[in-house]
């Protein structure tokens, strides 16, 4: 197969394939224009092949508008209030420990992730209303990235430090009471304190897999279904609260977060200054200080 430039080198690179151009176009030689005329292929001889095609072109109707694309990762602004995306009208969800979450959020919440899995603190604890007391529902929780950035602690605040790692497989935590009736869920607050976060991509326990130094947002989902594996859902409601955003870490970076965790977490009372079991942590703290600074004078070590 030859390119027209090879067949007609005198035309240079300006050679164009197509119907003959007007005579005023000097770039198309009149001699070649005759080669595009086919007197034997007139309209009457092609009628038997084109009988189903109208001679006059028809104007097609405009196609229906496409649905809007979802916002790119990292461009979606944080909702100023609890956001609900649902097909369960009348259902509402409220964050029970909202004030505690706000206190952590004002500093910059951090959540520890380990290979074995670590529970969240604060945990998501919600109250639901507006459910059908007789219908059965599933309660789910997942954690999704907030943006497409990786973060770094700069001594006083968190700042983006590059592109985020590839997104890990999405996992969903199913509340162990699921499925249960609406009356059961509305009887008392629903707690997700058993949710565990891990950084092990090969985790076999169903923990939620996260990248370290990334910002995440928990979401709570409510599904109307009689069984866990039901293919017939009666509706879905999804909620998220802006104050529950956090940055996943393998060790706390902000000292203020460490203080808040010790002060607010009931399982950390042994670390408190006035806790009953403060003395039992002394050997651990002593060994930690000795490892981090073996040249610390014995007199300074003795107080621990």
TrEMBL record:
<feature type="compositionally biased region" description="Pro residues">
    <location>
        <begin position="62"/>
        <end position="82"/>
    </location>
</feature>
<dbReference type="GO" id="GO:0007498">
    <property type="term" value="P:mesoderm development"/>
</dbReference>
<dbReference type="GO" id="GO:0000785">
    <property type="term" value="C:chromatin"/>
</dbReference>
<keyword id="KW-0238">DNA-binding</keyword>
<dbReference type="GO" id="GO:0000981">
    <property type="term" value="F:DNA-binding transcription factor activity, RNA polymerase II-specific"/>
</dbReference>
<dbReference type="InterPro" id="IPR018186">
    <property type="entry name" value="TF_T-box_CS"/>
</dbReference>
<keyword id="KW-0804">Transcription</keyword>
<dbReference type="InterPro" id="IPR008967">
    <property type="entry name" value="p53-like_TF_DNA-bd_sf"/>
</dbReference>
<keyword id="KW-0217">Developmental protein</keyword>
<dbReference type="GO" id="GO:0000978">
    <property type="term" value="F:RNA polymerase II cis-regulatory region sequence-specific DNA binding"/>
</dbReference>
<keyword id="KW-0805">Transcription regulation</keyword>
<dbReference type="InterPro" id="IPR001699">
    <property type="entry name" value="TF_T-box"/>
</dbReference>
<dbReference type="Pfam" id="PF00907">
    <property type="entry name" value="T-box"/>
</dbReference>
<dbReference type="GO" id="GO:0001708">
    <property type="term" value="P:cell fate specification"/>
</dbReference>
<dbReference type="GO" id="GO:0005634">
    <property type="term" value="C:nucleus"/>
</dbReference>
<dbReference type="GO" id="GO:0045893">
    <property type="term" value="P:positive regulation of DNA-templated transcription"/>
</dbReference>
<dbReference type="InterPro" id="IPR036960">
    <property type="entry name" value="T-box_sf"/>
</dbReference>
<dbReference type="InterPro" id="IPR002070">
    <property type="entry name" value="TF_Brachyury"/>
</dbReference>
<feature type="domain" description="T-box">
    <location>
        <begin position="95"/>
        <end position="273"/>
    </location>
</feature>
<dbReference type="GO" id="GO:0009653">
    <property type="term" value="P:anatomical structure morphogenesis"/>
</dbReference>
<keyword id="KW-0539">Nucleus</keyword>
<feature type="region of interest" description="Disordered">
    <location>
        <begin position="60"/>
        <end position="83"/>
    </location>
</feature>
<dbReference type="InterPro" id="IPR046360">
    <property type="entry name" value="T-box_DNA-bd"/>
</dbReference>
<protein>
    <recommendedName>
        <fullName>T-box transcription factor TBX6</fullName>
    </recommendedName>
</protein>
